[in-house]
Design a protein that fits this description.
Strand 1 and strand 2 form a beta hairpin. The protein has a single domain, classed as Orthogonal Bundle (Arc Repressor Mutant, subunit A), CATH 1.10.10. The longest helix is centred in the first third of the chain and has 14 residues. By secondary structure, the protein is an alpha+beta fold. The chain has five helices and two strands; from the N terminus they run ααααββα.
Length: 98
């Protein structure tokens, strides 16, 4: 099994599971605006930060988003999240079903 084939299988499996409403909003925001921290996403979406954090954890576990870099402010590091190819596939599939 080649790495390209395995990657395509994993992308398809991650994209196949349905997205929750906040997960879909998070993916759409990342697709439109590029890399954002959890705080910026919550602010942009007008959602509670815990909901955004939970969505990011789930999306990261499903490999639909990844941390591209860390920004350090006031001594704390904040991950900057970006959408993956699998995330774009899942978002397109979700838009087709709505």
């Amino acid at each position: 099994m080649t790495a390209d084939y395995l990657g395509a299988v994993l992308d398809a499996k991650a994209a196949a599971a349905p997205l929750g409403p906040v997960q879909q909003l998070v993916l759409a925001a990342l697709a439109e605006h590029g890399g954002l921290t959890a705080a910026r996403l919550a602010e942009h979406l007008g959602c509670d930060r815990p909901k955004v954090d939970q969505s990011l954890r789930t999306l990261r576990d499903r490999m639909l988003v990844r941390v591209a870099e860390y920004q350090r402010r006031a001594g704390k590091a904040a991950g900057v999240y970006v959408i993956t190819t699998a995330g774009r596939t899942a978002l397109a599939a979700a838009k087709e079903t709505t």
